[in-house]
Amino acid sequence: MQNNVFLRLAQERYTTKHYNGQQIPREEFDTLLEILRLTPTSVNAQALHYFTATSQEARERLLPAFPEFNRDRITGASDVVVFTVPKTLTEAHLRRVLDKEESDGRFPNAEVKNAQDQGRRYFAGLHQGSEAELVAWEARQAYIGMGFLLFAAAGMGIDSTALEGIDFPKLNEILGLDEKNLTAIAAVSLGYRSPKDGNAQRPKSRLTVMSSSRRLTKSKLSA
To answer: Percent of the chain having pLDDT more than 70?
Structure first.
């Protein structure tokens, strides 16, 4: 069955620890960026921005924001993608999204357009009690994008690492994000594994589904 392809990717994909320095063909990297552009977001707010470090010089600029144990996964990779989100949702951004939806033909009439605009403002407004609350909401959506990226890369034979231990204030400083109303929330390195990457040889380890897990059934929902 076709869905076995996705199961195989989930079984075989792993976190790369060492890269060989080989560059991803630019047309394939562009494909990954297009997949990121198509990432779903809540109420189509599209409050995600990606920064890419594609040259050795650019990747080395990022190093002060990463702990020593992750630095080889930056310098040896082909590309690093930094996920950022806005600290405020501006009127200009909301208008830009609405105008793009209109130009793409999503609204058969003004009533539907207005409903979409008001609905987005309502749900986004639920998370604008503070900057931290808004960033947390947007970050959850950005992690959907990260999942898309990791899985798409695996399907294209490209290795990846979701990077941890990031000094986000430092990364914001390096990328000048404060002036852009943005804050970094995650980063992924992409490339091709080194033959010396021992993690590639280790079996995947995941907890099994517990037999005591409860399923939500229609009868329980209606009780």
So the answer is: 92
